[in-house]
Write a structure and sequence with these properties.
The chain has 83 residues and is mainly alpha-helical. Helices cover 58% and strands 0% of the residues. It has one domain. Helix 1 (3-15) runs parallel beside helix 3. The longest helix is centred in the C-terminal third of the chain and has 14 residues, at 55-68. The radius of gyration is 14 Å and the shape is globular.
């Protein structure tokens, strides 16, 4: 139902130079963080919210996940985007 909006947001991130964000990660961010306490009231509200996600909001969440994870730096598989 919101696949088109997820794809559009990922494409806008890629245009800004964030090539590693995919739809699955974005959906996980929405469900587990952004909409955890208060989900949008309708599908249309979900679609609009997805289209208004800013890269810094998503990456702030990613940073929070990394800081609270039990993984060490050696456990991370995909660090090539950082270098």
């Amino acid at each position: 139902m919101v696949k088109k909006e997820l794809k559009t947001t990922c494409e806008s991130f890629r245009k800004l130079g964030y090539s590693s964000v995919d739809e699955k990660e974005l959906m996980h961010y929405l469900v587990s963080y952004r909409w955890k306490k208060a989900a949008p009231s309708s599908i249309q509200a979900c679609r609009e919210d997805i289209l208004h996600i800013k890269p810094n909001e998503f990456f702030d969440y990613q940073q929070l996940v990394a800081q609270t994870s039990r993984l060490t730096i050696n456990d991370w598989q995909d660090l090539k985007d950082l270098f």
